[in-house]
């Protein structure tokens, strides 16, 4: 028969519980912050990519510059074609002059003048050539040769613009690669840190659960009598406090002449009798009582008891059940089997009422002993 013990958590354990909960929150917070940092890094890198792409494709200076130089070169080459065509010289000069003027307008850009040394001389050559073409003072072949320098300059500008575009592409690719590396390694590091923090959290949780379980088991063992498996005196006191304001019955049981029993049978047999009596008391009360061994040959039972009549009935059943069990006691002075002295009292559970109830039940038990043992008495409600 085992008692229904409900150990309470000692007040001294509360700071430890709070400290453990704080550690849980610390590791869990660090883990969540790591994953949050990972998301922030990803969002930041994503916001970086769009401006870089936009900056690259908005390089109007490079792209437009290349287009103007190309179109200007094409017009000059068309002017050369017009000058070398089979059409009349006057018509060839007029057509060439139109193409050169168009080329000049596209070539005469401040960026070209500032960045390319050949731009200014080429424009001056084109000015002189247009003046001579208007005055018809130059031969077509000479005019064609005069255009080679501007065409060469425009070709140089085109190639330079292509080089700049290639450099921009390379810079963008390298920057993208570096940012991808930073994103990859940082994400991996933050992810690993998050897993580590989470693992530390889980490990601390498992350790605390294990320690709590050990503490709980230790408390259970501390509240039980190792011989019979029922509760001890501390468990009795704690269970009373757990049933505050309930109407309870307290029954104290003492084995008559237990020392003589041990002297006759030996202590191992005496231990066996204690276990048998614990089982008998539990069966007699139909497992409705919580049982305790208070030390030596003294037991206690705690049960719900609405009135004194119920308590008396329990005591009477216990003595009757023991007589029916008929445990032998060869050293009993009255030549009886094992007998009990039982005292009881009823009370409303509380810190102070329990002390009075225990004293009342103990006095009832000693009245039974004074009357010859093998019986029961209950202290009536005052």
UniProtKB/TrEMBL annotation:
The chain crosses the membrane at residues 24-44, 182-200. PROSITE patterns: GGDEF. Keywords: Membrane, Transmembrane, Transmembrane helix. Its EC number is 2.7.7.65. CDD domains: GGDEF. It catalyses: 2 GTP = 3',3'-c-di-GMP + 2 diphosphate. SUPFAM superfamilies: Nucleotide cyclase. This is diguanylate cyclase. It comes from Vreelandella neptunia.
């Amino acid at each position: 028969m085992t008692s229904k013990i409900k150990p309470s958590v000692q007040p001294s354990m509360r700071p430890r519980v709070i400290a453990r909960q704080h550690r849980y929150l610390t590791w869990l917070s660090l883990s969540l912050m790591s994953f949050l940092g990972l998301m922030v890094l990803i969002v930041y890198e994503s916001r970086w990519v769009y401006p870089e792409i936009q900056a690259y494709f908005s390089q109007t200076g490079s792209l437009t510059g290349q287009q103007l130089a190309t179109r200007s070169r094409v017009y000059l080459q068309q002017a050369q074609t017009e000058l070398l065509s089979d059409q009349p010289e006057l018509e060839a000069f007029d057509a060439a002059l139109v193409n050169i003027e168009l080329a000049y307008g596209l070539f005469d850009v401040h960026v070209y003048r500032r960045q390319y040394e050949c731009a200014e001389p080429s424009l001056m050559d084109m000015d002189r050539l247009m003046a001579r073409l208007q005055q018809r003072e130059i031969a077509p072949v000479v005019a064609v040769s005069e255009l080679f320098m501007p065409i060469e300059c425009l070709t140089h500008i085109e190639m330079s613009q292509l080089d700049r575009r290639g450099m921009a592409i390379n810079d963008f690719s390298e920057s993208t690669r570096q940012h991808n590396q930073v994103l990859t390694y940082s994400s991996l590091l933050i992810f690993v840190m998050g897993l580590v923090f989470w693992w530390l959290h889980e490990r601390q949780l498992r350790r605390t659960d294990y320690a709590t379980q050990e503490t709980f088991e230790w408390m259970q063992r501390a509240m039980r009598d190792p011989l019979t498996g029922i509760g001890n005196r501390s468990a009795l006191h704690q269970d009373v406090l757990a049933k505050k304001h309930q109407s309870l019955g307290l029954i104290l049981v003492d084995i008559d002449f237990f020392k003589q029993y041990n002297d006759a049978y030996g202590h191992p047999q005496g231990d066996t009798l204690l276990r048998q009596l614990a089982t008998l008391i539990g069966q007699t009360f139909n497992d409705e009582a919580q049982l305790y061994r208070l030390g030596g040959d003294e037991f206690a039972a705690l049960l719900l008891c609405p009135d004194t009549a119920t308590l008396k009935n329990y005591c009477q059943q216990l003595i009757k059940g023991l007589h029916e069990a008929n445990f032998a006691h060869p050293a009993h002075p009255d030549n009886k089997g094992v007998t009990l002295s039982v005292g009881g009292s009823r009370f409303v559970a509380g810190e102070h009422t329990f002390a009075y109830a225990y004293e009342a039940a103990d006095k009832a038990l000693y009245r039974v002993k004074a009357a010859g043992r093998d019986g029961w008495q209950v202290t009536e409600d005052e």
